[in-house]
Specification:
The chain is mostly helical and 103 residues long. 70% of the residues lie in helices and 0% in strands. It has one domain. Helix 1 packs across helix 4 and helix 4 packs across helix 6. It starts with 6 loop residues before the first helix and ends in an 8-residue tail after the last helix.
Length: 103
């Protein structure tokens, strides 16, 4: 299934995640994108997916649960909850492993 554009989440991510981007390495980005690719989850662009993932981490930092973030990603982008849950899990693994207990 093709991801719809991450309109609300992605736009917010672009403005809110500049600090998180400073800590991400190219290998983190590649691992994240590879995880999505292996699950058949498509995205408008690599940078957009990375920014959205970092925004997911920001939401978790602000106290949201993994389920909350997955539901927001699903609702805002019209994707199945299983894809958005996987997306958030891959985001955690790549960019905010301190939230591994979010689910």
């Amino acid at each position: 299934m093709t991801f719809r554009v991450f309109v609300a989440v992605g736009l917010a991510a672009a403005s809110l995640c500049s600090a998180a981007t400073a800590f991400a390495s190219p290998s983190d980005d590649q691992a994240f994108l590879s995880a999505l690719d292996k699950q058949g989850i498509t995205y408008p662009s690599p940078q957009f997916a990375i920014s959205t993932a970092q925004y997911a981490c920001t939401l978790l930092d602000d106290g949201a649960t993994g389920v909350d973030v997955a539901q927001e990603v699903s609702k805002n982008n019209g994707i199945p909850i299983d894809h958005s849950t996987y997306f958030v899990g891959a985001s955690i693994a790549a960019y905010c492993p301190q939230h591994t207990d979010a689910f």
